[in-house]
């Protein structure tokens, strides 16, 4: 009589490790698509928050995949497709419903240009990431799509913040910002990449404190914190270029 084979498994250990990051990625795209629904309903505050949550998930899924050794080619391609939706299509629709629609066809053209630049930037990233590792891996070519998605929302975020230092003309500022961010996305301007940052063990507790403090501020003073973060990131762009060269 044959003994049953107890080694048969429906899902391998490798596949089980791959599933979790991909689930997070799919949750992120669902949240990104939901932000479009919020903006269509005129609830722009929730639309912004949805994009930010999608950005946090985008930053976690890759790190979790590398931590549990669950990286895969499918996950890489899925992550790029998710970025196009969450940080390309979603911000473009949000800003179009908010103010770009008032520009008519020109507003729609600006939205299309931005989404195309996000897609081109991600396609270039996928190709360049297959190159041999070097010190240049500490830098991106152009700004990453999650940063671009948040930066184009800055005028809308400013309108909800408490930093009402001046009353900008959004019909002029928003199109200009869209064009500038679109150019930065597809440019080869070096910007910092935090994916491979190494933190000394002695500084881990301080890093955790800073992260907790930042997310605390983000929960309590959401739009004020986002505005300050956006300006700090923009100020880091020339510094990263100087460091690179």
Would you spell out the secondary-structure blueprint of this structure?
Layout: H1 13-40, H2 44-67, H3 73-98, H4 105-128, E1 139-141, H5 145-151, H6 154-160, H7 170-186, E2 190-192, H8 204-220, H9 222-244
Antiparallel strand pairs: 1-2
Helix pairs in contact: 1-2, 1-3, 2-3, 2-5, 3-4, 3-5, 4-7, 6-9, 8-9
Structure commentary:
With 245 residues, this protein is mainly alpha-helical. It has one domain: Four Helix Bundle (Hemerythrin (Met), subunit A) (Up-down Bundle), CATH 1.20.120.1760. It is built from nine helices and two strands. It has helices spanning 13-40, 44-67, 73-98, 105-128, 145-151, 154-160, 170-186, 204-220, 222-244, and strands at residues 139-141, 190-192. The protein has a two-stranded antiparallel sheet. Helix 8 packs across helix 9. The radius of gyration is 20 Å and the shape is globular. It starts with 12 loop residues before the first helix and ends with a helix. The mean pLDDT is 84.
